[in-house]
Amino acid sequence: MGSGAIPPIDFSTFVLSLGSSAMIALGKMPNPETNEASEPDLPSAKQVIDILGVLSEKTKNNLTDAEEQLLSNLLADLHLCFLDSEKCQAKPQ
Q1: Is 1 or 45 the better-scoring residue by pLDDT?
Q2: For the range 65-73, what are the long-range contacts, defined as Cβ-Cβ under 8 Å and sequence gap of 24 or more?
Q3: pLDDT tens column, 30-87
Q4: Cystine design at 23: which of 6, 29, 70, 76 (Cβ 3.0–4.6 Å)?
Q5: CA–CA distance from 29 to each of 18, 50, 54, 75 (Å)?
């Protein structure tokens, strides 16, 4: 594989890519194009988290233990980050 070549994708890489997209949408990671964190886009973050949830349901009993653990932990972390971002976005009463 030459310099700058894209490695082959596997399930873990795919899941981590979706997780990174959610973290960028949550404003928790810098956008790789600008290297700056943007304002949270909660609807987009929720959509990616929901996609990972669907993926988890549809792949149940068809993943290795490591893949299952990765997906489960990622979803738990993203749910917590989403709730934290949602709380920070709430307007004072």
Answers
A1: 45
A2: 66/12, 67/11, 67/12, 67/15, 70/12, 70/15, 70/16, 71/15
A3: 888 889 888 899 999 999 999 999 999 999 999 999 999 999 999 999 999 999 887 7
A4: 29
A5: 13, 19, 23, 16
CA distance 18 to 79: 14
Tokens of 76: 């738990």
Q: Identify residue 53 by its one-letter amino acid code.
A: G
- Sequence ranges of the domains in the chain: 42-49+63-87
